[in-house]
Write a structure and sequence with these properties.
The protein folds into two domains: 203 residues, Rossmann fold (3-Layer(aba) Sandwich), CATH 3.40.50.2020; 158 residues, Rossmann fold (3-Layer(aba) Sandwich). Helix content is 30%, strand content 24%. It has ten helices and 18 strands. The chain starts with a strand and ends with a helix.
């Protein structure tokens, strides 16, 4: 594979590891279709007459709820990429006549069923799992399970060669599989491009723009934004009550701000997940009390588990000016209609990764985010 003048990855069947095959699991069809369209486009540009790389699969259920994996065409000799969204709660299955919503556990079990259905015939199996199964339980306190670490080891034992994830809650989970391919991707360029395209009068300079980390755990990703943009960084410290557990975690007592004065500054807050969203709203309220100007938040995975109404109110009251989220997990139709929501499309970036892995070359030779961010800033700062 090489780069042409339009910066597009080009397929070369002579240098690819094996013929490419793509399986989009239940709930990942929209993302799989977008990725497939880029791969088909690049294949045709290189002279390959290819209608698509998607391979149809199913995980039907018996009336008792038992399931099985089914791949509807051959995968023999293929470099197989399986895309799964373990957090897509819109998928359903029937059990004893009742409709059930699929949990992350169900999605993960179906992934293993499809790997089994490949029956060892694929040349190589790679998993694209944007949000890691069990990834929020990243360390052990007291007597607790370590689901993500165990799942990664299980996938390795099943013959998976590479896992590509996005913005892992704690990338150190890779320590569970040190000899296995594991890429933790940060879609920084795609986020900045979406901001510039959607936010009018956006001026990212040291005098009027700041990055604020929502907590100490998100400091590294926010430090990166501050570094590439050349602006200052502040952070919030989450004070928790470690004497009790609510909804699986120690409740937050207060957010304490550390950093320079935010008065009159536009603020950008980046995190991996917006779950209920209460934390990001508390931070927005505090920043507004400190006389911050516009406040934008970004989460790779916008789950909004407690609904959208409180965000509607915060936007109406001027506490939040916009929220960015990727298409790496399920978004409700209601969320996509919200005026304050900006979607970050990461499908092309995943297609680059798939193409690079399929040709066994370094992703840095395909797409350099540092250089692209530099070009983006130069373009818009003019």
């Amino acid at each position: 594979m090489s780069m042409n003048s339009s910066n597009v990855a080009v397929f070369n069947p002579e240098t690819s590891v094996a013929p490419l095959g793509l399986i989009a699991m239940n709930g990942a069809g929209e993302l799989g279709d977008k990725i497939n369209s880029y791969l088909v486009e690049w294949a045709k540009q290189s002279g390959l007459d290819k209608d698509g790389f998607l391979i149809e699969s199913q995980c039907p259920r018996f009336a008792s709820g038992d399931g099985k994996g089914l791949i509807k065409s051959t995968v023999r000799g293929k470099d197989l990429f399986i895309i799964v969204d373990v957090n897509n709660y819109s998928c359903k299955y029937k059990m004893f006549g009742q409709e059930n919503f699929m949990s992350p556990d169900d999605h993960y079990q179906d992934l293993k069923r499809i790997i089994q259905a490949a029956s060892g015939k694929a040349h190589r199996i790679n998993v694209i799992m944007p949000i890691l199964y069990g990834g929020r339980q990243h360390r052990r306190n007291y007597r607790e399970s370590l689901d993500c670490a165990w799942a990664l080891q299980e996938l390795q034992s099943m013959g998976v060669s590479n896992i590509v994830t996005f913005d892992a809650h704690d990338p150190r989970v890779h320590n569970a599989i040190p000899l296995m391919g594991f890429d933790n991707v940060m879609p920084t360029y795609q986020v900045l491009k979406t901001m510039y395209r959607n936010i009018k009068d956006l001026h990212i300079t040291k005098d009027n723009f700041m990055i604020v980390s929502p907590d100490e755990g998100a400091l590294n990703r926010n430090m990166y934004y501050a570094s590439v943009l050349g602006v200052e960084l502040g952070m919030f410290y989450k004070r928790r009550d470690y004497s009790r557990i609510e909804n699986g975690r120690n409740p937050i007592v207060a957010h304490e701000y550390l950093g320079r004065d935010v008065e009159g500054m536009d603020i950008f807050v980046a995190d991996d997940i917006i779950s209920s969203g209460q934390s990001v709203l508390d931070i927005a309220y505090q920043l507004k009390e400190k006389k911050a100007n516009k406040i934008y938040a970004y989460a790779t995975y916008g789950l909004f588990t407690d609904g959208l109404e409180k965000f509607d109110q915060a936007y109406k009251d001027g506490y939040i000016n916009g929220i960015l989220g990727t298409n790496l997990t399920y978004r409700t139709p209601e969320l996509l209609k919200r005026e304050w929501f900006m979607e970050v499309d990461v499908s092309k970036y995943i297609a680059y990764f798939i193409s690079a892995i399929n040709h066994d070359i370094s992703i840095s030779s395909v797409i350099d985010p540092h250089e692209k961010i530099k070009q983006l800033l130069e373009k818009y700062n003019q």
